[in-house]
Amino acid sequence: MSLFKPLETNPDKKNIDGQPNPSEHVKCLIIGSGPAGYTAAIYAARANLKPLLFKGIQPGGQLTTTTEVENFPGYPEGITGPKLMEDLEQQAARFGTDIRWGIATSVDFSSTPHKVVVDEKTTFEADTVIIATGATARYLGLESEEKYRGSGVSACATCDGFFYKGKDVAVVGGGDTACEEALYLAGMCRKVYLIVRKPFLRASKIMQQRVMDAPNIEVMFERNTRELRGNQVVEEAVLIKRMGEPDEQEEIIKIDGFFLAIGHTPNSDVFKPFLETDETGYIKTVPGTPRTNVAGVFACGDVQDKTYRQAVTAAGSGCSAAIEAERYLAQR
User: Fold this and answer.
1) Distance between CA atoms of 121 and 37, rounded to whole angstroms?
2) Cβ atoms < 10 Å from Cβ of 233
3) pLDDT at 278
4) Please, is 298 exposed, middle or buried when counting C-beta atoms within 10 Å of its C-beta (0-12, 13-18, 19+)?
5) Are both 179 and 317 inside the same structural domain?
6) What is d(CA 70, CA 159) in angstroms, rounded to the nearest whole number?
7) Which pLDDT tens digit goes with each residue over 145-196?
């Protein structure tokens, strides 16, 4: 079932007289509705840019899959991810942002105004475009993994590690990110299992050494996760250890948390014909700014940030994108 409510548009782009409907023209079009998108909308609306925001592929962004958020400024008692996004949406709407359901399915940034097609039906022309489509965490694809998402399964140790203080957790992955997550968790958890599919770590030598030197990290090579078990929350992971073809051995580890650190996929495919991206698909921006290689097109949030990937840094970059869009329009 689709997560998105289709726009009420005429697929043939005809009015009641049978004539083509003109494309809707806006000063500022925002694609995406996570912390970056909504913050950009708040600033753009207050600057009288009359922004139009489409909620995109994951309305509310990755925070909608998070239970408690305790590291976003202004919430001393914490807040749930969905409620935080609801608050941001209401704040953006309060200042006049036109918020609609829809997904950008194609774009044309070859000339101005820029063109964005939504839901493969309706073309919108925009003087400025702010891309805040985020990134999608990679998961193993286990049914039990989906079952416990937000109840022991997480793709962000920095976001959720605090809830496992003094407990036993597992991290899946063998690269620098996995090692960084394992070390971060080792500073607060009793025991950290690092589950590695290969017989070696892909991380840099210095990261490998730090992991090996950590007394409460146990590296488990040549293991794959078969399933997660528990009642309401994760209680154990069932691993498969390769013993040489075709033999394998099942083993169970008792854990309270299961962290994925096998990478993220930026939601940038639709923009690649016009925007520069790195080897993994993150949109390239001018260092220290949200500006892309196309004038009037800005990128913010996780779609261009492969380093921090935090709600607060995404919100900050959304602010920057809106300010840059305002300055761009003022200079034209």
Assistant:
1) 22
2) 13
3) 97
4) buried
5) no
6) 8
7) 999 998 999 998 988 999 999 999 999 999 998 999 999 999 999 999 999 9
Residues 173 and 123 grouped into a single domain = no
Closest CA to 254 of 218, 211, 214: 218
Residue 226: which of 209, 248, 205 has the closest Cα?
A: 248
**Domain of residue 202, residue span:** 139-260
Instruction: Please state, in angstroms and rounded to a whole number, the distance separating the CA atoms of residues 213 and 216.
Output: 9
CATH of the domain at 155: 3.50.50.60
Selected catalytic residue, list 156, 179, 300, 319: 156
For the chain, list residues with pLDDT below 50.
1-21
Closest CA to 148 of 224, 85, 227, 213: 227
Determine the pLDDT at residue 11: 38
Active-site residue, 159 included: yes
Rounded Cα distance, 187 and 168, in Å = 12
21-26 long-range contacts (CB < 8 A, ≥24 apart) are 23/115, 23/122, 23/123, 23/124, 23/125, 24/52, 24/122, 24/124, 24/125, 25/113, 25/124, 25/125, 25/126, 26/50, 26/51, 26/52, 26/98, 26/124, 26/125, 26/126, 26/127
Active site residue 300: no
Rounded to whole angstroms, what are the CA distances from 260 to 38, 157, 175, 190? Answer: 27, 9, 12, 18
Give the pLDDT confidence score for residue 62 in this predicted structure. Answer: 79
The phi, psi pair for 268, rounded to 5°, reads -125, 0
Query: Whole-structure pTM over 0.85, yes or no?
Result: no
Q: Which residue has the tokens 């899959």?
A: 65
Catalytic hit among 127, 160, 256, 302: 160
Q: What is the pLDDT of residue 57?
A: 82
pLDDT tens, residue by residue, 121-159: 999 999 999 999 999 889 999 999 999 998 999 998 988
Question: Which residue is it, tokens 């920095």?
Answer: 158
Catalytic, out of 159, 179, 189, 300: 159
Lateral strand order in the sheet of 236-242: 223-229, 236-242, 248-254
213 is catalytic: no
What total of structural domains would you count in the chain?
2
